[in-house]
Write a structure and sequence with these properties.
The chain is mainly α. It has 22 helices and 2 strands. A two-stranded antiparallel ribbon has the order 1-2.
Amino acid sequence: MLKKISVFFTKNIYQIFLLFVVIMFFLINFYDLRYKLSLNSSLDKYYVIFILLSIILSVGVFIMCIKAKIADEKIPKIFVVTAIVLGVVYLFLSPLFTGSDEHNHYYRIYEISDGTLVTPTDKVVGSQLPQSLSETFTKASGHNTTVKYENIRDMLNIELNRSNKTEYGDLWTNSYNNTALYSPVQYFPQVIGFSVAKLFDFGPYLIGMFGRAFNLIFYVVLGYFSLKLIPKAKMFYLLILLSPNMLQCATTLSADAFTNIIFLLLIALLFKICYSKDKIDKRKELLLLILCIIISLCKIVYLPIVFLILLINSDKFKKGNKGKTIFSILTILLSVIAGLLWMSYTDGVFDIAYDKTEFQKDFIFNNMLNYVVVFVRTFANYIIKYIECLFVGTTMYHSQLNMPAFISFFYIILVALALLKDNVKNKLNVSKRVIIAFVGIIIVGLISTAIYIQCTAQYYSVGNSTIEGIQGRYFIPIIMLIPFVFQFKNIKLNNKILYISSLMINLITWFYMINQFIA
């Protein structure tokens, strides 16, 4: 008997360790909740709710762990099932407006669904929108993002009342200066969700939840095709797509989920073409062109990724060098024009809401060496924080989840192991890998500089000694390029272990969410 027990523990030592970790973090959150409610003994019902929700979610995750069979060729389908299950949980565990700047995303999406593609900037940055939108947000949280489950009932009771409109943008509490810079393309899924909900004359809360749901659906569908197309490191990309930070974006009104999944689909198609021996047909050329234009409209800082179409060999085109030249010039030119056109449409936002950007630009141009020092100092000071907040971290849900660093770095280790176990050879030559790495570095520089010009100048100071406002998740698209830059040694590791670990970390994240939003 003792021998059987010993063999069982030996074979399942890792799973037992994970179970211990899950129980430990359940207890941590349970006692933290008790501490928060210790001054009010009438709130015992919250303990019961926390325990019941935790048990239900834990049982569901453990069933998924037992059933899991993670063969590489099945990863796209596994993603669909897992992302839907996990996504639905994230969708309902986080009340509306708890996502980062989610109320600002809401206002921008609503005006687009009403046909206003460019936010008016006559006197303020904002449109005439139903007053019930800001009333719903105020009812829930009093002009911040600390929404609780108990607020949902009051939010649901508010009717839309489209005729009773008010001017948005005149106060900080209902301005959306930052999201006014976003193009309508980035909100395509959410706008569909809003439009459907408005057809049924739903209230502001349900309209927002429909937008969230369609954001998740779009993420799952495009994630499936991305994983089907990507020619290597499928487990690596699966873990990224199932990470808490990515699922948080996909189940709120954030535009980042759309941007990230379009970025992944673009590089998946691009490298699929590079790895294939077949010639490119017109459909793939058109899809590449559309994806490149979309990514330039999403965030101009990701525009350099478009230049990676130059990695496609001439023999993949039916007309050889001539075909490649025409396609490359057309795609790059249209992408640049699209990005610059949208920037020109949003000049008024900067004039009114970010009036210090020109001063910051002047500082950079006149003090290039100093800015290099600022850039280096920023990453020297914050690089660990950026890494910590890539896939989990403390910036989730507007920095409301105090996720421990141990969990965040553990997920990073999982992603790294998935990369190291990739057994598909990198078919790109050294010069092409260098180009990919260079493009990645350029994008990092552009992201940081854009934040310095827009956010640091406005909310800190012009010429600030560090770049403030960067979050680790901004660099997830850059991480997606790594499998095609390096060739890692194939280590033997079971996909199921990585998959189960990802599920457990999502489960732990849910404990923190319930704790945060319940009281």
